[in-house]
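Hi P.,

Sorry for the delay on this. The queue was packed all week, but I finally got your sequence through. Input first:
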Amino acid sequence: MSNEGFFEKVYQVAALIPYGKVTSYGAIANYLGAAGSARMVGWAMNGIGSKDVPAHRVVNRNGLLTGKHHFQGTNLMQQLLESEGIEVVDNKIQDFEKHFWDPMKDI
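Then the structure:
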């Protein structure tokens, strides 16, 4: 599968993340049968461009907003999450397990 094909599959999964929920790069990679490819999922999210995909809902496995520097504005990723009722303190999602959406279980 080419990177482009993989990236499109990443975007399809990310588009399914429910409002008020988050998932991790690794969870998306696992769902796509590419365990160990969390970084590649991150690259896909970084290159999202103008696609209508809720990239702000994808964080690292510990709930850290590691992709925040790819959003315009200094705190846009955090603001988007907080507008969905997700509390963020020091770039980390609070009650991460409560907000976590696992595509393996939920699709």
